[in-house]
Design brief:
Radius of gyration: 10 Å
Number of helices: 3
Helix content: 55-70%
Number of domains: 1
Number of strands: 0
């Protein structure tokens, strides 16, 4: 599967703060896509947002 850069990830979740938007999609159940895309989002969140404050 293709590795995404930060610009591509921000475009995927629709905003300039990738980690905030990705966390909302992962934790709030608002993700719309197949399981392969969901796993891609999980992996990219884990790889790029290790210090992210999840208290939104």
């Amino acid at each position: 599967m293709e590795q995404l850069n930060m610009d591509q990830m921000e475009n995927l979740v629709g905003g300039s703060d990738y980690c905030d938007h990705a966390w909302l999609l992962l934790s709030g159940g608002g993700f719309q896509g197949d399981s392969e895309l969901y796993l891609l989002l999980v992996r990219s969140y884990e790889a790029n947002c290790s210090g992210h404050d999840q208290q939104l």
